[in-house]
Amino acid sequence: MYALAAEDGRFQLIVDDGAPLTQYWGTLATSGNSLSSSNVQVATGTSYLGTANITGGSITARQSMTATVSYTPAPGCAPTVCGNAQSGSLSLTFNPVYNQGGALSRIAGNWQDVETGQIINVNSAGVVFSQEAATNCVINGQVSTINTAFNAYSVTYSFSNCRFPFNLQNGTTATGLAFVDSGVTPNRVYFAGQYRVGNTAYTTYAYGPKVGG
Protein backbone atom coordinates (compact mmCIF):
# COMPACT_ATOMS: atom_id res chain seq x y z
CA MET A 1 0.00 0.00 0.00
CA TYR A 2 1.20 3.48 -0.88
CA ALA A 3 -0.34 6.55 0.71
CA LEU A 4 0.47 10.18 -0.05
CA ALA A 5 -1.09 13.13 1.79
CA ALA A 6 -0.02 16.48 0.36
CA GLU A 7 0.23 19.83 2.11
CA ASP A 8 -2.98 21.02 0.38
CA GLY A 9 -5.00 18.25 2.08
CA ARG A 10 -5.43 15.94 -0.91
CA PHE A 11 -4.54 12.30 -0.45
CA GLN A 12 -4.08 9.18 -2.57
CA LEU A 13 -4.11 5.67 -1.17
CA ILE A 14 -3.12 2.92 -3.58
CA VAL A 15 -3.51 -0.76 -2.73
CA ASP A 16 -0.91 -2.99 -4.37
CA ASP A 17 -3.45 -5.71 -5.15
CA GLY A 18 -2.37 -6.50 -8.71
CA ALA A 19 -2.98 -4.48 -11.86
CA PRO A 20 -5.09 -2.46 -12.18
CA LEU A 21 -4.40 -1.16 -8.68
CA THR A 22 -7.27 -0.05 -6.43
CA GLN A 23 -7.16 3.64 -5.52
CA TYR A 24 -8.80 5.62 -2.73
CA TRP A 25 -8.68 9.41 -3.00
CA GLY A 26 -10.17 12.52 -1.44
CA THR A 27 -9.33 15.26 1.05
CA LEU A 28 -8.30 14.77 4.66
CA ALA A 29 -9.49 17.06 7.45
CA THR A 30 -7.40 17.34 10.60
CA SER A 31 -8.02 18.84 14.02
CA GLY A 32 -5.12 18.52 16.42
CA ASN A 33 -4.09 14.87 16.25
CA SER A 34 -7.42 13.63 14.83
CA LEU A 35 -8.26 13.20 11.16
CA SER A 36 -11.26 12.22 9.08
CA SER A 37 -12.53 12.17 5.52
CA SER A 38 -15.93 11.50 4.01
CA ASN A 39 -17.04 10.67 0.48
CA VAL A 40 -13.70 9.12 -0.42
CA GLN A 41 -13.85 7.76 -3.99
CA VAL A 42 -12.78 4.19 -4.76
CA ALA A 43 -11.99 2.82 -8.21
CA THR A 44 -9.68 0.44 -10.02
CA GLY A 45 -8.71 1.08 -13.62
CA THR A 46 -11.94 1.46 -15.60
CA SER A 47 -14.17 0.10 -12.80
CA TYR A 48 -15.76 2.53 -10.36
CA LEU A 49 -16.26 0.66 -7.09
CA GLY A 50 -17.90 3.00 -4.58
CA THR A 51 -17.12 5.31 -1.69
CA ALA A 52 -15.47 5.13 1.72
CA ASN A 53 -15.37 7.11 4.96
CA ILE A 54 -12.32 7.52 7.18
CA THR A 55 -13.25 7.90 10.85
CA GLY A 56 -11.66 7.65 14.27
CA GLY A 57 -8.36 8.68 12.77
CA SER A 58 -5.30 9.68 14.75
CA ILE A 59 -2.13 11.20 13.36
CA THR A 60 1.28 11.87 14.84
CA ALA A 61 2.92 14.30 12.46
CA ARG A 62 5.79 12.79 10.47
CA GLN A 63 5.46 9.51 12.39
CA SER A 64 2.25 7.49 12.02
CA MET A 65 -1.44 7.45 11.16
CA THR A 66 -4.30 5.14 12.18
CA ALA A 67 -7.97 5.15 11.24
CA THR A 68 -11.05 3.07 10.48
CA VAL A 69 -12.05 2.84 6.81
CA SER A 70 -15.67 1.99 5.98
CA TYR A 71 -16.35 1.02 2.37
CA THR A 72 -19.74 1.18 0.58
CA PRO A 73 -20.12 -0.34 -2.91
CA ALA A 74 -21.62 1.79 -5.67
CA PRO A 75 -25.42 1.41 -5.91
CA GLY A 76 -26.39 -1.46 -8.19
CA CYS A 77 -22.83 -2.75 -8.57
CA ALA A 78 -22.59 -6.53 -8.39
CA PRO A 79 -20.60 -7.95 -5.45
CA THR A 80 -18.45 -9.85 -7.94
CA VAL A 81 -17.20 -6.46 -9.20
CA CYS A 82 -17.44 -4.11 -6.22
CA GLY A 83 -17.40 -6.50 -3.28
CA ASN A 84 -19.51 -6.03 -0.17
CA ALA A 85 -19.78 -3.22 2.37
CA GLN A 86 -17.08 -3.62 5.00
CA SER A 87 -14.90 -1.82 7.51
CA GLY A 88 -11.29 -2.29 8.48
CA SER A 89 -8.44 -0.66 10.32
CA LEU A 90 -5.72 1.35 8.62
CA SER A 91 -2.25 1.80 10.08
CA LEU A 92 0.47 3.67 8.20
CA THR A 93 4.04 4.63 9.07
CA PHE A 94 5.63 7.85 7.84
CA ASN A 95 8.31 7.49 5.17
CA PRO A 96 11.01 10.20 5.37
CA VAL A 97 11.23 10.23 1.57
CA TYR A 98 8.49 12.88 1.88
CA ASN A 99 11.06 15.25 3.38
CA GLN A 100 13.31 15.10 0.32
CA GLY A 101 11.81 18.20 -1.28
CA GLY A 102 9.59 18.84 -4.28
CA ALA A 103 11.52 20.91 -6.80
CA LEU A 104 10.61 20.33 -10.45
CA SER A 105 14.25 19.44 -11.16
CA ARG A 106 13.78 16.23 -9.12
CA ILE A 107 10.91 14.93 -11.23
CA ALA A 108 12.19 16.11 -14.62
CA GLY A 109 13.49 13.37 -16.92
CA ASN A 110 12.40 10.17 -18.64
CA TRP A 111 10.63 7.53 -16.55
CA GLN A 112 9.70 4.03 -17.71
CA ASP A 113 6.47 2.52 -16.43
CA VAL A 114 7.20 -1.00 -15.20
CA GLU A 115 3.82 -2.40 -16.31
CA THR A 116 3.59 -1.03 -19.86
CA GLY A 117 7.18 -0.16 -20.70
CA GLN A 118 6.08 3.25 -21.92
CA ILE A 119 8.31 6.29 -21.43
CA ILE A 120 6.89 9.25 -19.54
CA ASN A 121 8.81 12.46 -20.21
CA VAL A 122 8.71 15.38 -17.80
CA ASN A 123 10.66 18.42 -18.98
CA SER A 124 12.30 21.08 -16.82
CA ALA A 125 9.08 23.15 -16.79
CA GLY A 126 7.01 20.16 -15.63
CA VAL A 127 5.35 19.50 -19.01
CA VAL A 128 4.41 15.81 -19.38
CA PHE A 129 4.27 13.78 -22.60
CA SER A 130 3.79 10.07 -23.22
CA GLN A 131 2.25 7.72 -25.78
CA GLU A 132 1.07 4.25 -24.82
CA ALA A 133 1.81 1.57 -27.40
CA ALA A 134 -0.89 -0.76 -26.04
CA THR A 135 -3.72 1.80 -26.19
CA ASN A 136 -2.32 4.37 -28.65
CA CYS A 137 -3.26 7.05 -26.09
CA VAL A 138 -1.36 10.33 -26.35
CA ILE A 139 -0.91 11.90 -22.92
CA ASN A 140 -0.17 15.59 -22.42
CA GLY A 141 -0.01 17.14 -19.00
CA GLN A 142 1.64 19.23 -16.35
CA VAL A 143 3.42 18.53 -13.09
CA SER A 144 3.33 21.37 -10.54
CA THR A 145 4.89 21.83 -7.14
CA ILE A 146 2.63 21.99 -4.07
CA ASN A 147 5.24 22.88 -1.46
CA THR A 148 8.87 22.64 -2.56
CA ALA A 149 9.90 21.60 0.96
CA PHE A 150 8.07 18.28 0.53
CA ASN A 151 8.10 15.44 -1.98
CA ALA A 152 4.60 15.68 -3.42
CA TYR A 153 3.54 17.07 -6.78
CA SER A 154 0.20 17.94 -8.33
CA VAL A 155 -0.36 16.32 -11.74
CA THR A 156 -2.87 17.01 -14.50
CA TYR A 157 -2.91 15.22 -17.85
CA SER A 158 -5.33 14.75 -20.74
CA PHE A 159 -5.89 11.83 -23.12
CA SER A 160 -6.37 11.78 -26.88
CA ASN A 161 -6.09 9.37 -29.83
CA CYS A 162 -6.94 6.31 -27.67
CA ARG A 163 -8.11 3.31 -29.71
CA PHE A 164 -11.16 1.17 -28.82
CA PRO A 165 -11.98 0.11 -26.12
CA PHE A 166 -9.81 2.75 -24.43
CA ASN A 167 -11.41 5.57 -26.44
CA LEU A 168 -13.65 6.42 -23.48
CA GLN A 169 -10.58 8.28 -22.18
CA ASN A 170 -10.41 10.62 -25.18
CA GLY A 171 -11.06 14.22 -24.16
CA THR A 172 -10.86 13.47 -20.43
CA THR A 173 -8.46 15.06 -17.96
CA ALA A 174 -6.97 13.21 -15.01
CA THR A 175 -5.80 14.94 -11.86
CA GLY A 176 -3.83 13.50 -8.99
CA LEU A 177 -0.53 13.36 -7.14
CA ALA A 178 3.02 12.15 -7.74
CA PHE A 179 6.24 11.68 -5.80
CA VAL A 180 9.83 10.64 -6.47
CA ASP A 181 11.61 7.96 -4.47
CA SER A 182 15.25 8.97 -4.46
CA GLY A 183 16.06 6.34 -1.84
CA VAL A 184 16.59 3.78 -4.61
CA THR A 185 18.97 3.70 -7.58
CA PRO A 186 17.86 4.55 -10.16
CA ASN A 187 15.25 6.88 -8.69
CA ARG A 188 11.60 5.93 -9.16
CA VAL A 189 8.56 8.08 -9.84
CA TYR A 190 4.97 7.29 -8.85
CA PHE A 191 2.00 8.90 -10.64
CA ALA A 192 -1.64 8.40 -9.66
CA GLY A 193 -4.67 10.19 -11.04
CA GLN A 194 -8.40 10.10 -11.57
CA TYR A 195 -10.67 11.19 -14.40
CA ARG A 196 -14.40 11.07 -15.04
CA VAL A 197 -16.57 9.89 -17.88
CA GLY A 198 -19.96 11.40 -17.14
CA ASN A 199 -20.50 10.91 -13.41
CA THR A 200 -18.29 7.84 -13.12
CA ALA A 201 -14.72 8.05 -11.81
CA TYR A 202 -11.84 6.04 -13.23
CA THR A 203 -8.18 5.79 -12.28
CA THR A 204 -4.78 5.80 -13.90
CA TYR A 205 -1.46 4.82 -12.38
CA ALA A 206 2.16 4.55 -13.48
CA TYR A 207 5.43 3.98 -11.69
CA GLY A 208 8.96 3.12 -12.66
CA PRO A 209 12.64 4.00 -12.77
CA LYS A 210 14.39 6.95 -14.32
CA VAL A 211 16.10 6.04 -17.58
CA GLY A 212 18.71 7.69 -19.74
CA GLY A 213 20.57 9.50 -16.96
N-to-C span: 28 Å
Total number of helices: 2
Dominant shape: globular
Mean pLDDT: 93
Strand content: over 45%
Summarize the main sheet: 8 strands, antiparallel
Helix content, binned percent: under 10%
Q: Uncertain segments of ≥5 residues (pLDDT<50)?
A: none
Structural class: mainly beta
Nearest-angstrom radius of gyration?
Answer: 17 Å
Number of beta-strand segments: 16
Give the helices and strands as they follow along the chain: EEEEEEEHEHEEEEEEEE
Account of the 3D structure:
By secondary structure, this protein is mainly beta. Helices cover 4% and strands 57% of the residues. The chain has helices at residues 79-82, 104-107; strands spanning 2-5, 10-15, 22-27, 29-31, 34-44, 47-60, 64-73, 86-93, 109-112, 119-122, 127-131, 138-145, 153-160, 173-181, 188-197, 200-211. The protein is globular and about 45 Å long.
SSE layout and pairing:
Layout: E1 2-5, E2 10-15, E3 22-27, E4 29-31, E5 34-44, E6 47-60, E7 64-73, H1 79-82, E8 86-93, H2 104-107, E9 109-112, E10 119-122, E11 127-131, E12 138-145, E13 153-160, E14 173-181, E15 188-197, E16 200-211
Antiparallel strand pairs: 1-2, 2-3, 3-5, 4-5, 5-6, 6-7, 7-8, 9-10, 9-16, 10-11, 11-12, 12-13, 13-14, 14-15, 15-16
